[in-house]
């Protein structure tokens, strides 16, 4: 009796242990542990064979793409078309708003998907390049041409970035940019002019403050990078060009000491001193500040192209989105646009790089650029795509697309990826510091001189000076 | 009768019924699963965190570089760390005082004042404990909203317009403003804990004190507080530990550490470094700092709050 009791205890104990170990085991295969939003399209019968009729491209092709403000309609359509063109390729999609986090363990264990669209929280192209996770596609990309024979690399609005002495690790897919948004229907009704430079912008804000009784400018204090990217960066670029923009972001001490920087910050100070900034901005996250714009509690807000898509469920029927490149430029000078590019790349450890290359080549066409503008509200990073005849593209996008393709009205300045570990770290620290100081100056706690002083000191500290 | 005094009898009964082997097997059956879970979900991540703190690692790739104590020496020159520690302890201080004073007040009121609706209030006060911290954070964000918020609305309604301000966007008021929801959400649990202690105090003690002419206030300080001191001590230590480890959630939801670094706490800074700046090793080092500070704080509190056990 005692023995059998002993045995049953032992049996229970062993079973429990096994259950615990099984639950915590990480030896399950990738196929079994794929995230919920993973879907497969197309034939699975071909398995992983690399030989087939469609140009020798076949097998599994894993694509990771973040689904945010742009939605996933474009991706679904493109992948379906790709599948039709390459019937022997079995496309496995890993998509969703948290996909970067969900796929993180795959990247850490050197078992990444083949194609990755780099966007959203938890992903950084700079970091991926520094960690050697992306395939060098320089030679292959240089040989790509569009249907009309134009080299693909020459047809980008913002060029593919070359690092490490000319190496290309990704193709710039989405052309997004920051600028100032307003309700153009409200502006028309009130007879308010759209600003074209800093003087007209300041005058416009003062007029709105007086006539509507509101603080016309708002931004999110919780994510002060909105003001950095939407106002300061275009202002620095308009004042000192691409070099100044990059030097400041990279923490070059001499750049922070230049008089153009102080002049830009004086403009910010002028906006603050005139009481034009919403007094609650520091408390707002991005959606709260955007909501205030929709409710006409403010008139101007710096955001990227995704704003209309992001706020579409809350947008009043009579609200018409208007967009202007940040008017921080001096009168007579061009407005500056800093592209915020989202790239697509192939993993260095991709199992099927040939299919991955075929996919990248497949998506860069005018047809998909049109569809991209229709379904996302942003522009695919391709020149000479005529959106004017497309009724499904929002007006603000047509306007900005025209500006981009007609040089003179605006100037495009690119923010380049800093090279080297230390430079990358300095850029991160400078961004963190600038975010802190932005809140201080917009709250009126420091003036332009103090802002510049603090940033210069930070740059000196980071550079060991 | 004290529970401890029962153990010898229970042991004797077990000895009679079961053999020693059976006893150990039974104990192992009860303890082992919990111990294994504890090792997997607490000890292993703790050691993992300590291990990663010695590396330069983005947290997103297999590339790791051993850098010894570099992450720790970096903390010494990081001004945000110092600010985060100060904010953390300010948060703890406000929370401990806020919760303990209010929880004690309500516990005494609901037990001593013989209020008819006491069970109702017990439920109402406990209610925030079953709400997610994220929901609490969002709810209070609306309450503090500069334009449509309840706080500013009330201030304006009673003619105190000049007191109205963007609470969460104000450098001075942001941290106290984040602490208030934490106090609001914490009262219920500790109130119940203290009520348990108070109801265990014999009524005869209060009757005797009353006959001797002791005022209510004297009764509170000379009878109630000494006799529920173990519960008060447990509550304070629990609030300190949970605040140092968990203040991050409320801060992240309500202010994301802002404005500037006005509400930055160690947890939110850890999150920023590890998951936004891709400096996982440095984030892990901040995690170790939180662990060390929590341990030191608890040890100091144990000494400070040590009192002889009181029995009347």
From TrEMBL, chain A:
Q: Domain of life here?
A: Bacteria
InterPro entries reported for this sequence: Bact_solute-bd_prot1, SBP
User: Which N-terminal stretch is annotated as signal sequence?
Assistant: 1-22
Q: Locations of Low complexity compositional bias?
A: 40-55
Among Pfam families, the record links this protein to:
SBP_bac_1
Sorted UniProt keywords? Signal
Aminoacyl-tRNA synthetase as UniProt keyword: no
| Name the record gives this protein | Carbohydrate ABC transporter substrate-binding protein (CUT1 family)
Q: Cite the PANTHER family for this sequence.
A: ARABINOSE-BINDING PROTEIN-RELATED, DIACETYLCHITOBIOSE BINDING PROTEIN DASA
Task: Look up and give the organism this protein is from.
Answer: Ureibacillus acetophenoni
In residue numbers, the region (Disordered) covers: 28-56
TrEMBL record, chain B:
Q: Domain of life, per the record? A: Bacteria
GO cellular component terms given for this protein = plasma membrane
Its membrane topology: Multi-pass membrane protein
Limits of the ABC transmembrane type-1 domain: 85-301
**Transmembrane stretches, by residue range?**
24-47, 89-111, 123-143, 173-194, 236-262, 282-305
Keywords annotated in UniProt = Cell membrane, Membrane, Transmembrane, Transmembrane helix, Transport
- Please tell me whether the keyword Iron-sulfur is annotated for this protein: no
Q: One Pfam family for this entry, by name? A: BPD_transp_1
Give yes or no: UniProt keyword Cell membrane. yes
Cite a single GO BP annotation.
transmembrane transport
Family of this protein: Belongs to the binding-protein-dependent transport system permease family.
Q: What is this protein called?
A: Carbohydrate ABC transporter membrane protein 1 (CUT1 family)
């Amino acid at each position: 009796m005692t023995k059998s009791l002993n045995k049953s205890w032992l049996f229970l104990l062993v079973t429990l242990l096994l259950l615990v170990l099984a639950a915590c085991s990480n030896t399950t295969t990738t196929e079994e542990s794929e995230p919920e939003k993973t879907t497969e399209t197309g034939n699975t019968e071909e398995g992983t064979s690399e030989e087939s009729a469609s140009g020798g491209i076949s097998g599994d092709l894993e694509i990771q793409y973040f689904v945010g403000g742009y939605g996933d309609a474009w991706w679904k359509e493109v992948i379906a078309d790709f599948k039709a063109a390459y019937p022997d390729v079995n496309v496995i999609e890993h998509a969703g708003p948290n996909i970067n986090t969900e796929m993180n363990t795959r990247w850490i264990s050197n078992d990444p998907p083949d194609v990755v669209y780099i966007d959203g929280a938890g992903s950084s192209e700079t970091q991926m390049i520094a960690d050697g996770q992306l395939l060098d596609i320089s030679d292959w990309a240089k040989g790509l041409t569009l249907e009309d024979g134009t080299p693909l690399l020459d047809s980008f609005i913002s060029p593919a970035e070359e690092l490490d002495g000319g190496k290309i690790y990704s193709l710039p897919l989405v052309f997004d940019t920051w600028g100032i948004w307003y309700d153009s229907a409200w502006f028309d009704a009130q007879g308010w002019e759209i600003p074209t430079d800093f003087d007209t912008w300041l005058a416009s804000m003062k007029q709105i403050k007086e006539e509507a009784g509101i603080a016309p400018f708002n931004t999110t204090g919780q994510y002060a990078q909105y003001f950095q990217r939407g106002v300061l960066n275009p202002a620095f670029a308009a004042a000192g060009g691409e070099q100044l923009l990059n030097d400041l972001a990279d923490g070059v001490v001499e750049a922070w000491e230049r008089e153009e920087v102080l002049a830009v910050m004086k403009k910010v100070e002028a906006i603050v001193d005139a009481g034009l900034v919403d007094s609650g901005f520091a408390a707002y996250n991005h959606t709260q500040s955007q909501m205030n714009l929709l409710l006409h509690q403010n008139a101007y807000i710096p955001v990227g192209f995704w704003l209309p898509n992001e706020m579409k469920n809350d947008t009043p029927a009579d609200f018409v989105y208007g967009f202007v490149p940040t008017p921080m430029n001096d009168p007579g000078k061009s407005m500056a646009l800093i592209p915020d590019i989202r790239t697509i790349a192939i993993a260095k450890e991709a199992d099927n790089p040939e299919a991955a290359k075929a996919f990248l080549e497949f998506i860069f066409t005018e047809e998909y650029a049109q569809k991209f503008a229709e379904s996302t509200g942003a522009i695919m990073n391709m020149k000479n795509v005529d959106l004017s005849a497309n009724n499904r593209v929002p007006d603000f996008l047509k306007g900005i697309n025209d500006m981009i393709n007609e040089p003179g009205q605006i100037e495009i300045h690119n923010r380049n990826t800093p090279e080297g570990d230390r430079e990358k770290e300095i850029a991160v620290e400078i961004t963190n510091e600038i975010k802190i100081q932005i809140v201080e100056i917009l709250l009126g706690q420091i003036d332009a001189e103090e802002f510049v002083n603090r940033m210069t000191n930070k740059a000196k500290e980071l550079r060991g000076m | 009768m004290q529970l401890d005094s029962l153990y010898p009898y229970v042991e004797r009964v077990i000895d009679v019924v079961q053999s020693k082997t059976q006893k150990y097997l039974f104990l192992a059956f009860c303890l082992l699963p919990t111990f294994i879970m504890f090792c997997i979900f607490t000890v292993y991540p703790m050691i993992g965190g300590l291990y990663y703190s010695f590396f330069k690692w983005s947290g997103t790739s297999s590339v790791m570089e051993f850098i010894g104590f570099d992450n720790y020496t970096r903390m010494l020159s990081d001004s945000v760390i110092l600010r985060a520690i100060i904010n953390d302890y300010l948060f703890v201080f406000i929370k401990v005082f806020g919760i303990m004073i209010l929880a004690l007040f309500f516990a005494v009121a609901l037990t001593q004042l013989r209020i008819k609706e006491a069970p109702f209030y017990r439920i109402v006060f406990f209610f925030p404990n079953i709400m997610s911290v994220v929901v609490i954070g969002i709810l209070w964000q609306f309450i503090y909203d500069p334009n449509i918020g309840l706080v500013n609305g009330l201030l304006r309604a009673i003619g105190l317009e000049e007191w109205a301000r963007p609470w969460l966007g104000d450098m001075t008021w942001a941290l106290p403003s984040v602490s208030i929801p934490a106090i609001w959400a914490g009262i219920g649990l500790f109130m119940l804990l203290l009520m348990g202690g108070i109801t265990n105090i014999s009524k005869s003690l209060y009757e005797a004190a009353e006959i001797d002419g002791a005022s209510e206030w004297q009764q509170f300080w000379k009878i109630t507080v000494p006799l529920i001191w173990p519960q008060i001590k447990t509550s304070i230590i629990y609030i300190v530990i949970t605040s140092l480890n968990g203040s991050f959630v409320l801060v992240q939801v309500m202010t994301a550490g802002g404005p500037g670094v006005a509400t930055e706490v160690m947890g939110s800074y850890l999150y920023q470094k590890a998951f936004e700046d891709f400096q996982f090793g440095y984030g892990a080092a901040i995690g170790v700092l939180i662990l060390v500070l929590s341990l030191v704080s608890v040890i100091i509190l144990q000494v400070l709050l040590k009192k002889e056990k009181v029995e009347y």
